[in-house]
Design goal:
By secondary structure, the chain is mainly alpha-helical. It has 17 helices and no strands. The protein has one domain (15-435): Amino acid/polyamine transporter I (Up-down Bundle). The protein has helices at residues 15-26, 30-41, 45-72, 79-87, 89-121, 128-144, 147-175, 193-208, 224-253, 256-259, 265-274, 278-310, 328-344, 347-354, 356-375, 390-409, 411-435.
């Protein structure tokens, strides 16, 4: 009896999928909610808009660095892959585990939010948790059939989401009669302008987060040296255009004071355009967008533990790939973790406590580019980060500043994160010893 040769991931993805997974992963419920928070902190048009532009610049600087790292290390698995290459197994272990858990947690958050909005639209549907579990189950089955079916689902849902948002933008510009830069009744700020700007920028950066999505599939891209940079920059350009146009469009319909502090700013604007039905129109747009975001997370999470399994930092069965090119055991484990979060309702607590690693992982990634440029100067680099080391240093310093802000702003959960970091090393040593 001969052993069946191990299957590998399929190299079938291109730029279209890269654009779709970026749009799908970045644009979720945040853009419908965050403008209200920003307007409350920055009630004047140009500061309000500029914070979105600066957030986009930070994301572009990050994409510039990570595109080089991913193109020179074309393996699926996200930031874990090149952090491990540059900084060693333990750093890779930290990035991989925190990234995987947070992605599974995000799947839970997105599907629960989707269920909440779906039940508001159609009260006869199963309860929120039931809807979330159903969505995870359906998307897991779609992924099980293979990377091609997952990619088609991502392409379709992301295109539908982009078209829905563009339709909302067009409606705002067509029906709205305000000059967006015109003043209105000012909202009184609780904080000095600089402090308000920094806090607003943190919220905006979270709303742009997800632009790393293409690097999770680097080993499945037909021409990673060309297609990963195009996917990241092209996807971010589309997201930035949509974000800026939505914010301008909202202010064309109503003054900033009207949406300031609103939990669902898009619904407030939509009511001015469409009357009472405006709220339900926005819910439909958000549900479409959340399906796309959920699909991207269900696709991404298994790639992380697949890569870790290949390197001996996770259960070896996670390396298994089915005939459709899906890491199937990794998919089942990842979906099971998302289901556990949904059933127990612990995802908000878990995400709050590991959110500290969100920017910490970026910080390690940017540091990895400096390390690999020095240690492997002759390595093949299909894409070279523009303006390095200056652009990468700016992204690195901004990440460190953002990290310090996260610690100051949420010291309780930051201590939890540091505690998790402290216990991670003995866990890492146990896994290494078990694999030896």
């Amino acid at each position: 009896m001969t052993n069946r040769p191990a299957r590998s991931l399929l190299t079938v993805l291109g730029v279209t999928f890269g654009l779709a997974v970026t749009i799908g992963n970045v644009i979720g419920a945040g853009i419908m909610r965050t403008p209200g928070d920003i307007a409350a902190k920055l009630p004047s048009f140009w500061p309000f808009l500029s914070v979105w532009i600066i957030g986009a610049i930070y994301a572009m600087l990050g994409a510039n660095a990570l595109a080089e790292l991913s193109a020179m290390t074309p393996r699926s698995g996200g930031q874990y892959v090149f952090v491990r290459r540059a900084l060693g197994d333990y750093a890779g272990f930290i990035v991989g585990w925190s990234d995987w858990i947070s992605t599974c947690g995000t799947t839970a958050v997105v599907t629960m939010t989707l269920g909440e909005y779906a039940v508001k639209l159609w009260p006869s549907l199963p309860p929120v948790k039931g809807m979330a579990l159903l969505v995870v189950a359906v998307l897991t089955v779609v992924q099980w059939f293979g990377v091609r079916s997952g990619a088609v689902a991502q392409d379709f849902t992301s295109a539908l989401k982009a078209l829905a948002l563009i339709a909302l933008i067009v409606a705002c510009f067509s029906a709205g009669g305000r000059n967006p830069t015109a003043g209105g009744m000012e909202v009184e700020r609780e904080l000095p302008l600089l402090a308000a700007f920094v806090i607003a920028l943190q919220a905006v950066i979270y709303t742009y987060d997800g632009w790393t999505a293409p690097i999770y599939f680097a080993g499945e891209v037909k021409n990673p040296g060309r297609d990963i940079p195009r996917s990241m920059f092209g996807g971010l350009a589309l997201v930035t255009a949509i974000y800026l146009l939505i914010n301008i469009a909202f202010v064309r319909v109503v003054p900033l004071a009207t949406i300031a502090g609103e939990q669902l700013a898009a619904a407030t604007v939509s009511r001015f355009l469409f009357g009472p039905s405006g709220y339900f129109i926005v819910l439909v747009i958000m549900i479409v967008g959340l399906v796309s975001a959920a699909n991207s997370n269900v696709m991404m999470a298994p790639r992380v533990v697949y890569a870790m399994g290949n390197d001996g930092l996770f259960w070896s069965a996670a390396r298994e790939v089915n005939a459709g090119g899906t890491p199937d055991i990794s998919l089942l484990i990842s979906s099971a973790i998302a289901v556990a979060f949904i059933v127990t309702g612990t995802f908000e607590t878990v995400l709050a406590r590991i959110a500290y690693f969100f920017v910490a992982n970026y910080t390690l990634s940017f540091a990895s580019l400096f390390v690999l440029r020095m240690r492997e100067p002759a390595a093949e680099r299909p894409y070279r980060a523009k303006g390095h080391p200056v652009t990468t240093a700016i992204a690195l310093l901004a990440s460190v500043a953002f990290l310090i802000g996260a610690v100051i702003g949420d010291p309780g959960n930051s201590w939890w994160a540091l505690g998790l970091l402290a216990v991670s090393y003995p866990v890492y040593r146990l896994i290494r010893r078990a694999k030896a």
